[in-house]
Structure formats: structure tokens, C-alpha cells
Design brief:
The protein is of the alpha/beta class. Helices cover 62% and strands 13% of the residues. The chain is built from nine helices and ten strands.
Length: 411
């Protein structure tokens, strides 16, 4: 951001009346821009031009030249010719002293329509631009906004001329815009809107402006006043500039108090800058404190999480150990169960074997007994048979004897 303040003309406090004296006085007042006013027109003596240029460069004071007042590029041919000659001369002076641009008003609508006036102004500004190029005058043509309804130069009209004619630039006279808008500039947003419109056309953040107090009525400037006596405050403009760090802006005090109001604006701007810096420092401190708290909170959360993780690990470890123990126990139980089952099976098998053996033994015993019984029976049968045999022999003999006796009887 680059902001310059300075007067429109030689400082009131300047004892000498030359431009060199004015530049030295501006430097002592710690101002750094100046608008040189060629109000008396062609023939005004601009002495020591080279010295003015060198001194301005050395002291880093940016210079602008204001063409004679009452220029009319929308009037009849005679008025236009006179105006063009004056602006050409002002352009030559501006070139000699190393000024950034030559500023001019554009004239009245007169009986022409606004559209016709716009086209005539564009034609004449283009002619002026071409003459500057032909004569190798490398300063820009500054077109100033007007403060009266009958004068060509609303912000929109000036921007349209700048859009259609190269090597021109708008000169933003805030007092004129404020008056023409019936007291339009009150908030920083009002100033921001102007800067945005200008930047859209110029495609740059370089602005040349005029600021002062103003009395106005029904959209017309009545007179320029000191800043404190007008109803347009500088603070909103200062706040607006501080919101835009890329701005390169020169603020010319066109107030009757010239350098006094230039210094007044500079002081206000420095206070605003300081307040902004303090506010930003406080905000930064709060942000830092917030970050520290957040960091602390994060650390605490991290610690808690670490503790939780540690506790979780321990729990997991315990659970794993428990699981292992349980598994071991289960395995042991299973092994024991298996062993018991095996033992039971073995016992069963043994029992079965014993039972089988017993059965086999029993069978054998039974068989033996049966065999013995059979043998005994056989023996008994044999014995009986032998006994019967013996008995049978005796019976036969007896029977035979009986039969023989019977036979004898019959006989």
C-alpha cells in the first residue's frame, strides 16, 4: 500500500512563491505529493523546470499539473480550440517537470443531449491524446469528475471516456461526487464502490484523488470548504484504503486550507492505521492464545487418548493373557477329559476283555461242566446199560422157563 498526501498548489505557509520553495516546504511538512495549478493559463511563468523535476525526484514528491480552469471540450469550435491549446500547453509543462498527468475539466452539456456531449468530448480528448503522442509528451490526460448537474463529468461519464480513449485516467474528486450525489459518500462501502468501478475500467490499483469539505444543494456543489466544515468525513475513506493493501493512491487536498487539511488527513490516516495495527495485534494475540489453548487441549486429548490406548493395551493384554489361561485350562481340561475318556475307554475295554474272558471262562467252564455232565451221563448210561444187560439176561432165562412150563401144562 502506498498513500500520498499533499496540497493543490503551493502551501499557504510557504514564504517563497516558486515551485522549488513549495516542494521544500511540502517536504518539511512530511507530505509527498503536490498538484501544480496553472490557473492563469498560457504564459504563466514556470521557471527552473529542470530543477523542479530533479528536486521532486530527490524528495520523492509526486507531481500533477492542473490545466487552467473553465476548459470546455464539449462547447462550440472556438471554445474547444481555446481549451485544447491550454491543455496542450499544460501537458508540455507537465512533461518538463516530470508530472504523472495533466488534469482537466471537460465542459458543459449546454443544449446538447448527454449522449451527444459524451461523443463530442470523446472526439476532442482523442484529438488531444493524438497530439500528445505526436509531440512525444508522455504524461497521461487526467479527466476530473464534476460537481454540478449542468457540467459534463459524472463518474460513469468520465470512466466511459477513459474506456474509449487510451492514455487517459480518471481524477476522482470525492467532494464533487459527494455533492452531485446529494451527500452520497457516508460509509466506507460508498468509497469502495467508486474504487471498484474505476479499477474495472483502468485495470490498475493506481488512483489520483481530490478531497475537501463541500457545501452542496440539490445535487450541486455550492462551494469547497475545509474538511471539518463539510458533511463528508475522511475516516470512512481511510478505512476503505486500509482494507485494500494493493492500493497506490494520491490524495490531493483541494480544501481552502490546502496543506493544513492534507496534514489533517495524514494524521487521521496514521491514527486509523495505528488502531488497525493494534486491533490486528489484539486479534493476533487472541488467535495465538486460541492456538495455544487448542494446542494444549489437543495435547491433553492426545494424552487422554494415549492413556486410553495404554489402558486398552493393558486390558487387551490382560484379556489375551486371560484368554491364553482359559485356553490353557480348556486345553488342560480337554486333555484331562481325553485322558479320562481314554482311561474310561481303556477301562471299558479292560472290563469288556475281562467280561469276555469271564464269559469265555464261564463258557469253557460250562462247556467243561456240560462235557463232564455228558461224560457222567454217558457213564451213567453205560452203567445203566450194563445193569440192564445183566437184568435182561436173567429175565430171558426166566421167560424161557415160563414159556417152557406153560407148554408143558397144555400138553
Amino acid at each position: 500500500m502506498n498513500v500520498r498526501f499533499g496540497p493543490a498548489g503551493l502551501p499557504l505557509s510557504c514564504k517563497g512563491r516558486t515551485l522549488v520553495d513549495g516542494l521544500e516546504d511540502i517536504y518539511r511538512l512530511e507530505l509527498n505529493t503536490m498538484e501544480i495549478q496553472l490557473v492563469r493559463g498560457i504564459g504563466q511563468d514556470i521557471d527552473r523546470a529542470d530543477e523542479v523535476k530533479d528536486l521532486a525526484d530527490k524528495l520523492d514528491i509526486e507531481l500533477y499539473v492542473h490545466a487552467p480552469y473553465y476548459m470546455d471540450l464539449a462547447g462550440d469550435d472556438e471554445e474547444v480550440k481555446r481549451s485544447l491549446e491550454n491543455i496542450k500547453w499544460a501537458g508540455q509543462v507537465a512533461s518538463e517537470i516530470g508530472a504523472v498527468c495533466v488534469n482537466t475539466h471537460l465542459g458543459l452539456y449546454g443544449r446538447k443531449s448527454k449522449k451527444a456531449t459524451l461523443e463530442r468530448v470523446i472526439k476532442n480528448v482523442r484529438t488531444l491524446r493524438d497530439w500528445f503522442k505526436k509531440n512525444k509528451i508522455k504524461v497521461k490526460i487526467g479527466l476530473e469528475t464534476s460537481g454540478k448537474q449542468k457540467v459534463f463529468g459524472t463518474l460513469e461519464e468520465v470512466l466511459e471516456v477513459c474506456r474509449r480513449v487510451s492514455d487517459t485516467m480518471p481524477i476522482i474528486n470525492f467532494a464533487h461526487i459527494h455533492a452531485r450525489g446529494g451527500g452520497a459518500l457516508k460509509k466506507k462501502e460508498d468509497f469502495q464502490e467508486i474504487f471498484d468501478k474505476v479499477k474495472k475500467i483502468t485495470k490498475t490499483s493506481k488512483f489520483i484523488t481530490n478531497f475537501s469539505g463541500v457545501e452542496h444543494e440539490e445535487g450541486n456543489k455550492k462551494r469547497i470548504t475545509p474538511i471539518k466544515k463539510g458533511d463528508m468525513r475522511f475516516e470512512p475513506l481511510g478505512e476503505c484504503i486500509l482494507d485494500n493493501e494493493d492500493y497506490d493512491i494520491s490524495i490531493i487536498s483541494s480544501s481552502p486550507l490546502l496543506e493544513h487539511d492534507a496534514m489533517y488527513m495524514k494524521v487521521i490516516f496514521e491514527r486509523l492505521t495505528q488502531k488497525r495495527a493494534q486491533k490486528e495485534a489484539r486479534a493476533a494475540m487472541k488467535e495465538e492464545e486460541k492456538k495455544i489453548k487448542e494446542t494444549k487441549k489437543k495435547k491433553e486429548v492426545k494424552k487422554k487418548e494415549a492413556k486410553k490406548k495404554e489402558a486398552k493395551k493393558k486390558d487387551t493384554k490382560k484379556k489375551d493373557a486371560k484368554k491364553k489361561d482359559t485356553k490353557k485350562k480348556d486345553t488342560k481340561k480337554k486333555d484331562t477329559k481325553k485322558k479320562d475318556a481314554k482311561k474310561k475307554d481303556t477301562k471299558k475295554k479292560d472290563t469288556k476283555k475281562k467280561d469276555t474272558k469271564k464269559k469265555d471262562t464261564k463258557k469253557k467252564d460250562t462247556k467243561k461242566k456240560d462235557t463232564k455232565k455228558k461224560d457222567t451221563k454217558k457213564k451213567d448210561t453205560r452203567s445203566k446199560s450194563s445193569a440192564k444187560g445183566k437184568k435182561g439176561g436173567s429175565s430171558k432165562k426166566d421167560t424161557k422157563k415160563g414159556k417152557t412150563a406153560k407148554g408143558k401144562k397144555k400138553k
